[in-house]
């Protein structure tokens, strides 16, 4: 405890068991901390904590005995050696608690942490490993069954994590942030049956994310591999056996895949940053060839633990039929229990595309639909589940060809053209009008299919515009007025208006609301087209989406709370209720206010989330924080009863540490000098603090932990605690330490 060791052969040499090695400075020796070499002794169950081990010639911490097992290495600062921590044949050791292992740079073959021999079942977690000249972590020989988790590994000269040897097997590498290495984030050579999951591997600008060379049966899934020179590079062996890669987000790399192995293989079910196969291929150096289908169609995967990455099955049983000369499709219902809707991709090409240009997307909850495109075309179908944000979409179906009449007018579904209501109480529906034969004269008609009343809820005129601006939004001065559609009763009767529309136009239908109904009202509009006499007569109509008029605000009736977690604030609330908008569609805005009792002003929200009832806010700093939550429904109505939550966070450092009452006189019956029940208060703490109470002889009598993040801890000493001077050693997760004398007088 608290020794300074320098210029020796072995800075500190341990052969026994159950030692506490704490708060030492070990510097300029051959070895820094040498456990169990040369003389045996089976060093086990030692705790190595809060030491500074630096600038030693060979290793910082060396565990080298066949039974160097079950040791705990916590919160040390290890730098400037050939290797920071080197374990040979040691099992079940824990290297954790934000050890800082950095700048170990004497030789290129060095490493921050090196596991060799039969080093098995070691637990390496929550460490900072950076700027080592060789590797961040190096697993070699027969190192197996080790868990490497939640580490931040950056700026090492060679590789972030290296696996070297066919007997290096069954290790789990997960939830690590691996970035800015000099070469590759992960280097896998001949290793077997290892798992790589939920890692973020990014910004290796010279090398790449993963280099796999002659491995076997390793698996990489649910990783984010982005902004590297190479995403994954395969060199030698059979790539499909060496590293099956699936459910990963591999995108924005110079080459997402580089196959120099000379072998063709399949790497499917990944997100490549695009849904167009031509774009995906541009970022693949195929070599002997890669089959990357099927791939992710709807945005990136949710790579968090336990997330839903299962897509609905491919749609089957597709049949064609006709209604009023228009082709319709019918298909088998999906068996997915969380199915939300089906997607119909319509284009003039048999090749699949779900890009925003060159195709038409129709969304429907039904298992049959009209094909809303004039002329000849092709259709692919997919199914989507209801997983929020990271929707899972099935691979596309077999292609179906069709031929439709030349003029069709149809409503576009809500996935592309929204049914909206703006601030001026105007309902807008967007329609697509296609006239593939350039016939200029068409009769339009509108009919009501709901409970809206003429002259009470709606203005008598329905207006048509060319939709030239933002799709589905009325843009004054940009969208050109066409005509008014008048009607006499608005009760399920057609009112025909003959007008001229250019080939292939987008149409806006707008209706002004006269009243603000106290209940939800709905209506449905049908558009009917009558092809003029220049061609074969055709009459058809397609129902539009149902429109809901809603002025009722969402209401909070439950709880809104704040709690601390790892230096961040987690806000939780009960969902607001609304007469129309479901929970999945409710938007929540979080505002940070300076004082309690504030009202929501014009400030920008500190965070927003849709459909969820929790959010995490980081970087808030110390002191009291007040939050207001506002619910906004899909019609833009905002809650009138926002909820407030508050929390106090610890300081950023220990400079304002106060301990009192001091002296502590619990028996003099004065509140200001302390009581047996009130104890001693430590204030001005950071969010995560350990307080150790010692006698002046260095005997540890109590250990306290401030974890709730409010920066205050109340210690109630034992009633029989003797009078005298005690030392309180206060340390935090940033490496700061303060020692305070406390006098107890009874």
Q: What can you see in these coordinates?
A:
The chain has about 750 residues and is mainly β. The chain is about 0% helix and about 45% strand. It is built from 2 helices and 66 strands. A 12-stranded parallel sheet has the order 2-5-8-11-14-17-20-23-26-29-32-34. Strands 1-4-7-10-13-16-19-22-25-28-31 form an 11-stranded parallel sheet, with no helix packed on it. β51 and β52 form a beta hairpin. The chain is flat. The chain starts with a strand and ends with a strand. Residues about 405-450, about 485-505 and about 515-545 have low confidence and may be disordered.
Would you count the extended β strands for me?
66
The helical percent reads under 10%
Strand content: 35-45%
**Any idea what the shape is?**
flat
Distance between the termini: 31 Å
The strands making up the biggest β-sheet line up spatially as 2-5-8-11-14-17-20-23-26-29-32-34
Q: Which sheet architecture does the biggest sheet show?
A: 12 strands, parallel
Q: Can you tell me the residue ranges where pLDDT is under 50 for at least 5 consecutive residues?
A: 406-450, 487-504, 515-547
Mean pLDDT: 78
Question: What structural class results from the helix and strand content?
Answer: mainly beta
């Amino acid at each position: 405890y608290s020794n300074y060791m320098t210029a020796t052969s072995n800075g500190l040499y341990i052969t026994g068991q159950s030692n506490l090695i704490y708060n030492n400075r070990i510097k300029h020796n051959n070895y820094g901390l040498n456990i169990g070499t040369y003389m045996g002794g089976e060093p086990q169950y030692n705790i190595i904590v809060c030491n500074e081990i630096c600038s030693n010639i060979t290793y910082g911490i060396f565990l080298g005995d066949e039974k160097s097992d079950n040791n705990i290495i916590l919160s040390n600062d290890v730098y400037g050696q050939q290797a920071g921590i080197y374990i040979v044949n040691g099992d079940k050791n824990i290297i954790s608690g934000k050890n800082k292992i950095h700048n170990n740079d004497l030789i290129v073959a060095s490493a921050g942490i090196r596991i060799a021999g039969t080093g098995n079942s070691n637990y390496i977690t929550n460490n900072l490993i950076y700027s080592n000249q060789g590797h961040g972590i190096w697993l070699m020989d027969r190192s197996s069954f080790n868990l490497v988790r939640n580490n931040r590994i950056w700026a090492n000269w060679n590789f972030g994590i290296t696996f070297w040897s066919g007997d290096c097997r069954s290790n789990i590498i997960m939830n690590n942030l691996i970035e800015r290495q000099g070469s590759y984030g992960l280097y896998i050579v001949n290793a077997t049956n290892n798992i790589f999951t939920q890692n973020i591997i990014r910004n290796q600008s010279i090398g790449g994310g993963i280099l796999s060379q002659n491995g076997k049966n390793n698996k990489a899934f649910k990783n984010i591999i982005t902004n590297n020179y190479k995403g994954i590079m395969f060199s030698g062996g059979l790539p499909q056996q060496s590293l099956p890669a699936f459910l990963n987000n591999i995108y924005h790399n110079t080459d997402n895949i580089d196959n120099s192995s000379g072998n063709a293989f399949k790497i499917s079910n990944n997100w490549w940053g695009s849904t167009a196969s031509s774009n995906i291929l541009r970022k693949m150096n195929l070599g002997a060839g890669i089959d990357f289908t099927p791939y992710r169609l709807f945005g990136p995967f949710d790579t968090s633990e336990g997330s839903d990455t299962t897509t609905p099955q491919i749609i089957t049983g597709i049949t064609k039929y006709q209604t009023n000369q228009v082709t319709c499709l019918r298909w088998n219902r999906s068996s997915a229990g969380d199915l939300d809707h089906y997607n119909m991709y319509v284009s003039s090409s048999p090749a699949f595309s779900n890009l925003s240009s060159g195709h038409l997307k129709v969304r429907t909850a039904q298992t049959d639909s009209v094909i809303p495109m004039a002329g000849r075309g092709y259709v692919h179908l997919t199914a989507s589940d209801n997983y929020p944000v990271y929707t899972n979409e099935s691979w596309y179906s077999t292609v179906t060809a069709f031929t439709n009449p030349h003029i069709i007018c149809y409503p576009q579904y809500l996935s592309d053209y929204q049914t909206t209501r703006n601030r001026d109480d105007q309902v807008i529906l967007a329609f697509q009008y296609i006239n593939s034969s350039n016939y200029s004269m068409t009769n339009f008609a509108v009919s009501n299919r709901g409970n809206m009343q003429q002259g009470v809820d709606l203005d008598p005129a329905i207006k048509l515009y060319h939709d030239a601006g933002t799709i589905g939004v009325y843009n004054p001065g940009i969208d050109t007025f066409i005509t008014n559609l008048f009607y006499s009763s608005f009760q399920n009767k057609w009112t025909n208006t003959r007008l001229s529309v250019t080939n292939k136009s987008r149409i806006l239908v707008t209706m002004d609301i006269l009243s603000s109904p106290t209940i939800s009202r709905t209506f449905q509009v049908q558009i009917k087209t009558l092809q003029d006499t220049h061609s074969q007569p055709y009459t058809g109509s397609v129902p539009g989406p149902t429109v809901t008029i809603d002025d009722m605000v969402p209401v909070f009736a439950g709880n809104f709370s704040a709690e601390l977690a790892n230096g961040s604030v987690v806000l939780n609330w009960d969902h607001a209720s609304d007469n129309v908008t479901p929970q999945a569609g409710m938007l929540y805005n979080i505002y940070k206010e300076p004082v309690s009792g504030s009202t929501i002003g014009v400030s920008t929200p500190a965070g927003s989330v849709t459909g969820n009832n929790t959010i995490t806010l980081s970087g808030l700093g110390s002191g009291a924080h007040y939050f207001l939550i506002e619910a906004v429904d899909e019609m833009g109505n905002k809650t009138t009863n926002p909820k407030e939550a508050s929390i106090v966070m610890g300081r950023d450092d220990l400079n304002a540490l106060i301990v009192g009452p001091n002296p502590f006189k619990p028996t003099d019956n004065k509140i200001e000098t302390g009581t047996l029940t009130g104890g001693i208060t430590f204030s001005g703490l950071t969010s995560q603090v350990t307080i150790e109470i010692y006698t002046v002889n260095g005997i540890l009598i109590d250990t306290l932990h401030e974890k709730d993040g409010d920066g205050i801890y109340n210690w109630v000493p034992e009633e029989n605690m003797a009078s005298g001077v005690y030392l309180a050693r206060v340390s935090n997760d940033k490496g700061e330490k303060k020692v305070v004398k406390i006098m107890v007088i009874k």
